[in-house]
Design goal:
single chain, alpha/beta
């Protein structure tokens, strides 16, 4: 049966009061203010002021007070593939998230413990939603999307198993101490690699470059990130990896080669029209997340 809960943006916190959580939230905030010790040091730039305090004014548990009866999640950026799954009645609505940026959570009919959502672009939206959803009991999460290749030899559809991300964004610095690169859990990544090899699925391993500003991917910056070892540019991985590290759940990501940003002229290569690749990648992730 479909359930409904309120969405996560700050404006929607008013609904927590309607649901009866105002007293506990207020009490928690009072304790926070009273007991909070200074765990943040002023730096030259605010982005470097990491706070070791784990308890915030608004916490994921405030937004998702109920536990799911499922603990695995696929985050996909392939709306046409999800629509096909819906049309074929292979997934059903598990929960509706309302508010300013509404979305549905689906689960697979033949694997109800595996949830599926359409990801939202950028770390604050995608990783922010992930942080809220993990409070409902998620243990295994896998991401599948596309990204711009920094090496023109990476063909459209070639899979990158993400080992880490260059943190050229802001979100992740609120979850994990500043560093140039944030890495996935090697045990989880190795397990995904073994599963891919057992299925004879070709892939490469490596870093991504996570950026907040797609329209500021200048030739010089692209060259620098390529020199650092990034194979694909995208907008979510640093944030999602940081949330997984901070909250303590297993996370992996597969990104397929999309548009070419490495050549002198940008080439879309029709990356978002490869419906077969995108549908098959979701179905592959359905198997992988159950083997993580």
């Amino acid at each position: 049966m479909m359930r409904t809960f309120w969405t996560f943006p700050r404006l929607q916190m008013r609904y927590i009061h309607k649901l009866g959580y105002s007293t506990s939230c207020a009490a928690a905030n009072a304790v926070f203010i009273k007991e909070h010790k200074k765990m943040i040091t002023r730096k030259d730039f605010p982005i470097l002021e990491f706070d070791t305090e784990k308890v915030a004014k608004i916490n994921p548990e405030n937004l998702m007070p109920e536990k799911f009866n499922a603990d695995k999640l696929i985050i996909s950026f392939f709306p046409e593939a999800i629509n096909k799954l819906i049309e074929n009645k292979m997934v059903q609505v598990f929960m509706h998230i309302g508010g300013e940026n509404p979305f549905d959570i689906y689960n697979f009919v033949d694997a109800p413990q595996v949830l599926l959502i359409l990801g939202q672009i950028g770390c604050p939206a995608c990783a922010g939603n992930l942080d809220a959803l993990q409070a409902a009991g998620l243990k295994k999460v896998i991401f599948c999307g596309g990204g711009g290749v920094l090496d023109r030899n990476i063909k459209v559809g070639q899979l990158l198993l993400v080992e880490g991300a260059i943190r050229d964004e802001g979100f992740s610095y609120h979850y994990v101490e500043p560093s140039r690169i944030i890495f996935t859990d090697k045990k989880v990544t190795d397990k995904l690699a073994a599963s891919l090899e057992s299925k004879n699925v070709p892939y490469i391993r490596g870093l991504t470059w996570t950026t907040d500003a797609m329209l500021r991917e200048t030739p010089e910056r692209i060259a620098l990130r390529k020199e650092e070892g990034a194979k694909i540019v995208e907008m979510e991985q640093a944030g999602c990896i940081a949330v997984a590290q901070c909250r303590g759940f297993d996370y992996g990501a597969l990104i397929y080669g999309g548009d070419d940003v490495a050549s002198e002229q940008w080439d879309s290569r029709g990356w978002n029209t490869h419906e077969g690749i995108r549908y098959n990648l979701i179905m592959l992730c359905k198997e992988l997340v159950q083997e993580m």
